[in-house]
Amino acid sequence: MFFQKKGETLAIDTSRLPKHIAIIMDGNGRWAAKRSLPRKAGHRAGAEALERVVSEANKMGIQHVTVYAFSTENWKRSDEEVSAIMDLLRHYLKNSFQRFLKDNVKMQVIGDVTGLDQDIQEQIKVIEEKSKGKDGMTVHIALNYGGRDELRRGIEKIAEEVASGSLSPKDITEEIIESYLDTAGIPDPELLIRTSGEERISNFLLWQIAYSEFYFTDVLWPDFGKKDLEKAIYYYQNRERRFGGR
Ligand code: IPE
Ligand code: IPE
Ligand code: MG
After folding, report:
1. Which of 88, 92, 178, 191 could, after both became Cys, cross-link 236 (CB 3.0–4.6 A)?
2. Which-ligand-closest: CA of 85?
3. What CATH code is carried by the domain that includes residue 197?
4. Domain presence at residue 7
């Protein structure tokens, strides 16, 4: 765990920022329950926290932020909660993501978008298209995303290449596998943040987090802000990364 003394300011080295931060945005439901509000209100507050964090990360000069917004397992929730989340997504695709674009932030979706409603798929295409001309930070939104599903989809494509004779099994290198993932071309996250006190991966970025530093905090996602982001980066910068060496 990481402790900070009251009043202490954290000296972040801006020359050693992580290029890619992955975030498991957890705790929306508990945030709402604490206030006797419906879960939907927690998700709405969570979406606002995402706007804040994207804006801060962009100002700091982070290149990629990948956020877990809806997992392949989240379909198990009540119909009411799933449709509330999808309606919020519709709203945010039309509003905050347009604001991101104004700030030069690019947006990309990872996950199996074919499992989302048609109108949402179309909105995503529009925003990804508009992102092309931007050169700021990229926010990668994981929607209907599961690390195992991502690997399964990638393996299926690789198998098709092998079956058609255009790829030899011996040529399946780690680089080839990476190029078939949703995150192809993006550096692996150096830092993974999970809020709400849970210390598990819940099927997020299984391949990509091989050497990520993990930062767990009890802060519920809707309460997460600039200070918490700075704390996580400070924690990361004070870790000794070894990559199997000594
Ligand atoms: C994370 O918050 C958002 C999604 C999974 C969509 P939760 O909804 O999981 O919040 P808790 O874990 O119940 O507090
Ligand atoms: C992980 O949170 C998924 C997202 C944040 C979108 P969950 O709340 O769904 O994960 P578990 O159920 O606690 O593992
Ligand atoms: Mg949760």
Report:
1. 191
2. 1
3. 3.40.1180.10
4. no
